[in-house]
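fyi for ur records
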Amino acid sequence: MKILDIGTGRGTMAIMLALKGYHVITGEPEGHDWADWRSSAKKVGVENLITFKHLNAEQLPFSNSEFDAIFVYVSFHHINDKISALKEFFRVAKQHGIIVIFELTPEGVEEVRMSFPSHANAVDPRDYTKNTSYSLNIIEHGNINAYIYKKS
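which gave:
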């Protein structure tokens, strides 16, 4: 499987996927490397399964239908042009591929704001995908929801 993780952050998603044996391409926009994901990946022995690239979610540097799965772990609300980013996610996903967007709920954002008061508001990806033909499954779980889109 070819997997893309958008919004590396602390590397949570990339590391979890690598621990399952997947090779993962992960990235953030240039100048946004705010967290040390490499140290954590080294500690658990998966750094060799993760490739970091500078990328912009609104203009992904990949070919059409390149990825089996795309993950966006609590970073969708930080993307400026969410509609363009979603178009890019669907463009680079293979036929029958999945796009999984983990997004904080408003309650989850309030938790984060205890440590980071200016944290961005929660968003619901469905607000940006109303006119798409992709199937959607939602898993709600406390402070974070998973929106699983399948490209058919």
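The CA atoms of residues 5 and 71 lie 5 Å apart. thats all i got for now
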